[in-house]
């Protein structure tokens, strides 16, 4: 593999990592906006996994819901699905449905 190809691959990986961080931030901020614990929802979706380091790191970037812009339910579901987080999207969908019943 030549240097150019290696550099391109590293750039693609880094871009994906940044996009994935953005997805995690959207999820975490959506949780904060709705008074939910993102770590608890994540544990419900993935009980076999330990703590998610990326989620814990991104939690520091969230802001109080009073300072945040709204994140539509469809947006958080869309970004979770886009990155293959179907189990987490399912838990979020159940949470949305429970909220709608109130």
Per-chain topology:
Blueprint: H1 3-33, H2 38-45, H3 53-59, H4 73-82, H5 86-101
A few lines on this structure:
This protein is mainly α and 102 residues long. Helix content is 71%, strand content 0%. Helix 1 packs across helix 3, helix 1 (3-33) packs antiparallel against helix 4 and helix 2 (38-45) crosses helix 5 (86-101).
Descriptive overview:
The chain has 102 residues and is mainly alpha-helical. It has helices spanning 3-33, 38-45, 53-59, 73-82, 86-101. The termini are far apart.
The number of helices is 5
Instruction: Characterize the main sheet.
Output: none
Helix content: over 70%
Can you count the beta strands? 0
H/E series: HHHHH
Distance between the termini: 57 Å
Radius of gyration: 16 Å
Shape: elongated
Low-confidence stretches: none
Coarse structural class: mainly alpha
Strand content: under 5%
Mean pLDDT: 91
The oligomeric state is: single chain
Question: Any descriptors?
Answer:
single chain, 102 residues, mainly alpha, 5 helices
């Amino acid at each position: 593999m030549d240097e150019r190809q290696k550099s391109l691959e590293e750039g693609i990986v880094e871009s994906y990592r940044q996009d994935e961080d953005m997805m995690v931030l959207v999820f975490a901020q959506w949780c904060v906006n709705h008074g939910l614990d993102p770590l608890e929802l994540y544990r419900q979706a993935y009980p076999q996994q330990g703590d998610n380091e990326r989620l814990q790191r991104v939690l520091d970037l969230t802001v109080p819901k009073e300072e945040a812009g709204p994140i539509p339910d469809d947006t958080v579901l869309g970004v979770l699905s886009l990155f293959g987080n179907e189990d987490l999207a399912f838990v979020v969908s159940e949470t949305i449905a429970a909220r709608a019943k109130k």
